[in-house]
Structure formats: structure tokens, C-alpha cells
Amino acid sequence: MAEKKDEKKFTTISIPTPLAEKIKKRIEGTGFTSLSSYVTYVLREVISGMEEETEEAFSKEDEEKVKERLRALGYLD
Amino acid sequence: MPKPHGGKLIDRHLKKELSSVEELPAFEINTNLAEDVENIANGVFSPLEGFLSRNNLENVVKEKRLENDTPWAIPILLDFDKQKIKAIKEGDSLVLTNKENGLLAVLNIDEIYTFDKKILAQAIYGTQDTNHPGVANVYNMKQSLIGGKITLLDRRSRQFDEYNLSPKETRFLFKEKGWKEIVAFQTRNPPHIGHEYVQKTALTFTDGLFINPIIGKKKTGDFKDEVILASYETLMKHYYLKERAVMSILRTSMKYAGPREAIHHAIMRKNFGCTHFIVGRDHAGVGTYYGPYDAHDIFSEFPDLGIIPVFFRSFSRCKKCDAVVNEKICPHDDKYHINFSGKKIRELLTKGQVPPEDMMRKEVAETILRFDHPFVE
């Protein structure tokens, strides 16, 4: 950690100047310290809702075992 | 139900027999690390597939995020003494062993690196004070770290395993029950009336309650694990709808990292399939290292966390309202308020006395008192 320089990676994106100005006004007095921090926040929020899930189901045999376990705990009928 | 953290529920259980495991160099790890290994393998720590690499550690320290920008606040690290296992190098594999399990997991060594303990302590715990138990643990770590994926070989059955559901199992359970919104409650104590109030308030606006006690290493004077579980079984039996509340344990060590640990706790519950997570006053705090609501404030840094924190501030019983109240709903003066004092309840129980019913349910207290020694000695 201390042995390496700060190598945080950033990239530059372009947004319309009027939008940037609006955002700058909007974030005045909020916890956002820069246009970049605000845009990062918003994009993280947007992108998190778009991530895809890959779900693996139980095999039939395993499903029965799990059901049995959950029934023993009284959580399934 | 939320997606697992990072989009995929990790499963690092051995799928096919490995022939040469016993020939690999063995490295014995303590119980806390063994629990980390199991939590990685079961997906509790999704998206982690192993112990953190240097880049991930640095990102977690600086940004509270993994290298790929996924929120992550507590580093999961494997330290070792380079003098003791000199021969290992990147690309090798080790077999991790543990006193309780014997052969536990295979670790593929992707990276061997060193770290700065002061920077780590300051970033994670907000202090370098060695009186802080988390900082003390950091300073007791060996100087070298191994980053790499693990594969869980097997584990021996342990006490309370019937209550040890994996994220895959809890997700299945929630689906079977038809719950879409599930609120998680973390605990390390038997329930008093205040806890019940918080849980039921949150449950009112969701479909199901997931009670998730942390089980494991305790300090003297803490309630024993079996007491916590038995007391919750009693509460659920007498005061909860069977179709609305379930309990499962979580084996993991407390780090006492306050706000950062609140994020970590929320992520684990997201992986269990919960949509909401209850965060109380001074969550995962110790001493006076954190402000009472630091663990609330930190959530504003994570618009992409994927689980909704449910914040509770202080609550008490109001004699005038004749109800459990919080500062938002009760207009009465402090003189009408009785705080739920864990210390007071503990004192009464230590003397074999049942606490007043406006503090703890009689059935719960009696369950605790049935144990000859309810506290860790």
C-alpha cells in the first residue's frame, strides 16, 4: 500500500456544457465536491440496476435435501 | 430478491476430486480465517473468490471498493510468516488446514505481497490506537499476505449446523415462501423488547424477517451462542408469525470497524437474498471510536450497494404512551422514557431474576435462565 504510488485510474468523458453547469449549480452545498464525483455517483446508481444475474439452481436431488432441512426447522410445510 | 453482490453467487466448493491435495504444502489457519474461507466458498462474501490481491486491497483501503468498482469495505486477507513457509511462490498451491476441520481448502497463490499495517488500520478502523480490538488484530498480523482463489474441500459438521444456511439455501427459502422483500436483522444478543420492536416495525413494511445472529468467538461476559439461539427460538415461537420470520446463523468474526463493517454486514445479507438491512445506533462500534450514526451516514457513499439500509436511532419505552417509541413518534419528556439497558437485563439475569416484562419477554428470560451458565466465562 504505502510502497506504491497512487495509481487510481480515471478516464475523461464529455457531457454538454449547459448540463455540466446545471449540475455544478445543483451540487452546491451538497456533499459532492466536484462534477466528477456527482456524475460517478449517478452512474454507479444507474449501472447497478442493470447488472445481470447468473443464478445456479439446485439439482432435483439437492433441492429435496434442502427442503427437508428447511422443513425440519419449521420454515417450510 | 436482489442479485448477489457483483452479480453472481460464488460457489467455491470442490466439484471433482483432487488427487494430489495431501501432497501440497500445508498451512494451518485459525478459526477466524477458516470462517472466511467457508464464507467465500458459500458465497456469503460474493463476489470474492479468495483472499484479496494487492490491487484489490489498495482499492478497498482507499475507495471502499474492489478494483472493478464493486463496493467492498472490509479486506479479507490471509497473512503468513515468510520465514515459516519460505518455499512458496506465486503460481503454487497450498492446502489450508484448520484444527477443527483438518484439510479445509486449496489455495492457489496468485500473489505474495506486503502491506502497511498503519495505513490499513487507519483506513479500516479510523484509528491506529492499539486499544481498538480491530487495530490490535492488524498489528498482530504477519507482514506478508497471499492473494488467491480458494476451493473448499470439505468441512466437518459443527454445533448449530442445522441453523447454518448458505446464501443459496436462504435464497431458495425466500422464494419458496414467496417473499420479495426481506429485512435482515443482525444480532449478538438475546432479544429484548426493543429488538422485537425494531424487527416488527421493519417487518411491517416487508414480506419476511431474516434473523441472522453472528456466532463465533465471544468475550467473557457475552451470552453464549446456544443461549442466543434458544432465546430467539422462544421469541419466534410465541411472538412471531411462523410464515413471516426465519433464523439462520452467520459464522464470522466481528471486526468492530463501525461504519465500514456496517457496509460489509449489509453486503453479506444482500448475498443471503435480503432487500433491506437494519442498522442501529453505533452499529459494529466499540468504545468511542465512532460517532453513534457514522454507520448510517456511510451508506450515502454507495448508491450501487443493492440493499436498502433501514436506519433506527435510539428507542425506549415511554410510560406515557405505554409503548416502545423512538424520537420521531413520541412527544414526551425523557422522564417518561425507560431505556432498554442490556447491562441492566444482564445484571438481573446474572442474579437469576426475570427482568420486567416491559424490558424482556417472560418466556425469553425463562429460556435464558434455564441455562446454568448463560454467559461466556
Descriptors for this entry?
heterodimer; A: about 80 residues; mainly alpha; elongated; B: about 375 residues; alpha/beta; Sulfate adenylyltransferase; Rossmann fold; 7-stranded mixed beta sheet; 6-stranded parallel beta sheet; 16 strands; about 30% helix; about 20% strand
Structure in words:
The complex is a heterodimer of chains A (77) and B (377). The mean pLDDT of chain A is 85. Chain A has a domain of 39 residues. In chain A, 48% of the residues lie in helices and 0% in strands. By secondary structure, chain A is mostly helical. Chain A is built from 3 helices and no strands. Chain B is α/β, with parallel strands linked by helices and 377 residues long. Chain B folds into 2 domains: 148 residues, Sulfate adenylyltransferase (Roll), CATH 3.10.400; 149 residues, 3-Layer(aba) Sandwich (Rossmann fold), CATH 3.40.50.620. Chain B has 11 helices and 16 strands. In chain B, the strands form 3 sheets. In chain B, strands 1, 2, 3, 4, 5, 6 and 7 form a 7-stranded mixed sheet that branches. In chain B, strands 8, 9, 10, 11, 12 and 13 form a 6-stranded parallel sheet that branches. In chain B, strands 15-14-16 form a 3-stranded antiparallel sheet, covered by helices on one side. In chain B, helix 3 runs antiparallel to helix 4 and helix 7 runs antiparallel to helix 11. The longest helix of chain B is centred in the middle third of the chain and has 15 residues. The mean pLDDT of chain B is 93. Chains A and B meet through helix 2 and helix 3 of A and helix 2 and helix 5 of B.
